[in-house]
Amino acid sequence: MLWGIAAAAMTVSGCSQKSEEGSQNAASVAVTEYPEQVYWGDLHLHTLYSFDSYNFGNKTLGPDEAYRFAQGEEVDAHGGKRAKLEQPLDFLMVADHAEFTGVFLGLEKGNPDIVDTPLGKAWAAMNEAGDTIGPMNEVVASLQEGKAKRQPPEKFRRTIWSELVEAAERHNKPGKFTTFAGYEWTSMPGGGNQHRVVVFKDDKDKTLQTLPFSAADSNNPMDLWRYLAGYEEQTGGEVMAIAHNGNISNGNMFGDVQSDGTPFNQEYVNLRARWEPLYETTQVKGDGESHPLLSPTDEFADFESWDENNISMVAKPTEPATLRKWLAGEYAREGLKQGLDLQERFGVNPYQYGLIGSTDAHTGLATSDDNNFWGKFVESEPSKERINSKMGGRLWENWRLTSSGYIGAWAKANTREELFAAFKRKEVYATTGPRMAVRFFGGWDYQASDMEQSDYARIGYAKGVPMGGMLTGSGSAPRFMVTALKDPNGANLDRVQVIKGWRSSDGKLHEKIYEVVFSGDRKIDPATGKIPAVGNTVNMNDATYTNDIGEAFLSTMWVDPDFNPNVAAFYYVRVLEIPTPRWTLYDAVQFKVKPPKNAELITQQRAYSSPIWYQPS
C-alpha cells in the first residue's frame, strides 16, 4: 500500500509543462480543495537591471530572457553560450536591486532621464577621468550608510519600475507559469548582509501605485516593514519581505539586537513577525541551515559553509566565543531556536519562519542543477577558467559557489493568489536543487493506517497541520507523517531526519536530530543515535553516479520519544540524497582541468521542510 502513496506523490513532483503564449485569467484556473501539487520556483533572481549584475558583465540578459529561460526556453547566455533548463520552473520573480536600478544600463544607452541628471553627470565625469570604480563605491556607501549622496530622479525610477512590472505581467500565465513583481532591498550596514527580497502578490493596477523602497532611503529594516504596511493600507494589496540568506551578515540576521545595535523592543519583534514569514535558507552564496561550530554533533552540518568573511570581505572573528556568537546570528536552525526564547520574552516569535531556497544568481538564469550550473555572475558561467578563478577577479573563489536553491510550494493552483497564500502559511520548503516531493504533517489523531491511504494528504489536513503550522496542546506527544519522493530525474534518497529544537524551563536552548526513516538495512546505533553512511557510487573519472544505493521513496509515522508537553518546540524535516557529483567535478571532467586542492567534488543534496511548531496551551 505504501507504494500507492509514492505513486500519488509522483503526480505532485513539480513537473512543469512549457508555457504557451497568451495569458489566461486567474479566475478561470481550477483551484483544488487542498494543496495537491508542489510547484517549483525562485524568488531571488537578478538581471542586467541590477548594478552589480551589469557591472560584472551581464549586458544582455534582462527580465524577458529570465522569464523565458525559467519556462524552459533556450536563451543566448554570454560569449556565444546557449542555456536551457532540463526541467522548467513553475514560478519566478526577478528581484533586481532597488538601489540605482537600471542606472548603469541607462547611462550606457544614453537615456536622457538619467544622463542629464546630477547623478548621471557626476558618474559620467568619473568615467571620463578613468575612475570606473567611483560609481560602484558610491552605490556601496549608500547601502552601508542608509542614505545616498545622489539618487536617480523619480521619473526615471518610475519608468524602470514600470518596465520590470510590465515584464512580469507579460509572462504571467495563470495555471501554467506564475510571475511576481518584486525587488531586493540591499541593506548592508558595516558590510553585514541584511538584504530582504520584497514580493508583491498583486497585478500592476496595484504594484504601479508604489515605488521600491531602497536601502539608499534607509538601511533599517523597520523602515522597510513600515513601507510594506503603507503599501497594503494604500492599495488593499498584499506584500511580504523574505530575509536573505544570512551567512555573511556579521552575525546580525538573527540575535537579540537590531541592525543598528540597539536591543530588540516590542515594535521590532511585532513588525518582523508580521512582515517576514519566510527565510532564504540556501542559495548560491552557500547553505545557511546549520554550522558545525553551532551543531557539533550534526554530521551533516558542514554543508556548503560560507563563513570566511562578510559581504565587504571583512574576515570572521577568531576568538571562539565571539565567533560562535557571530555564527549564531547567521544560521537558520539557530535562529529558530532563538525565536523560542524571544517568544518567551515578548510573547511574539519573530523567527517563526518557513524555509525556502532561491538562487540569487545575477546572470538572469535561474538554475540550481549541478550538471547545468550557470554560476552567480557572468565570470562564473561555465568555462575552463571558472573553477580556478574569482568572481569579478577579486571577490570569492568561484569553486565556493553553491548550485542552490529552489522553493517547493504546496499550493491549490499555480496562480499568484494561491502561491502567495502558500508563502504566507509557510507551506513551503527549500531544496539545494533536486526536486524532491516532501510532505510533513503533525497532529494527535493520525493512525498508522492513514499512511497506507493514497489520499493520506487529505487526512493530513483533516486531522492536523502541514509544514508551517502550529500545534497547541498539553497532553500526549503529537504524531508526524513524513513522506519524501526522489526527484524523478535525480538521485535516490539516503535518509529522512527530523530536527527538533526546544527551550527548557531553565531558559536553555537545545536541539536533537532523529533518524526517522532511511534506505537499506542499516541500524541506528543506540549510543549515538546515528546510522552508517549510505555509501558512494560517484565515479570521479567521468562525473557519473548510479542509483544502486538509496531508495526512491521514504515514508514513516514518527512520534517524538522525548516529548515534554510543557516545553515549546519546533520540528522540521531534512531529506538527504545519496552522494552525487558536485558542479566542480562536472567542470573538471568537461573542461579537463584540475580543480583547486580544497574544492569539494562530491555533494549530498538535500531538502529542508518548513517547521511545525508546538506551543503548550
Q: What would a concise description of this structure say?
A:
This protein has 617 residues and is an alpha+beta fold.
Q: Uncertain segments of ≥5 residues (pLDDT<50)?
A: 1-5, 7-23
Largest sheet: 11 strands, mixed
The proportion of residues forming helix, as a percent range, comes to 10-25%
Number of helical stretches of at least 4 residues: 16
For the secondary structure, the number of strands is 25
Structural class: alpha+beta
Distance from N terminus to C terminus (CA atoms, Å) equals 36 Å
Mean pLDDT across residues? 92
From the alpha carbons, calculate the radius of gyration and give it in angstroms. 23 Å
> Which strand-content bin applies to the residues?
15-25%
Overall shape: it is: globular
In words, what does this structure look like?
It is a single chain. The chain is α+β, with helices and mostly antiparallel strands. The strands form five sheets. Strands 1, 4, 5, 12, 13, 16, 18, 19, 21, 24 and 25 form an eleven-stranded mixed sheet that branches. Strands 6, 7, 8, 9, 10 and 11 form a six-stranded mixed sheet that branches. A hairpin with a 5-residue loop joins β2 (75-76) and β3. α3 packs parallel to α8 and α10 crosses α11. The radius of gyration is 23 Å and the shape is globular. The model is unreliable at 1-5 and 7-23 (pLDDT under 50).
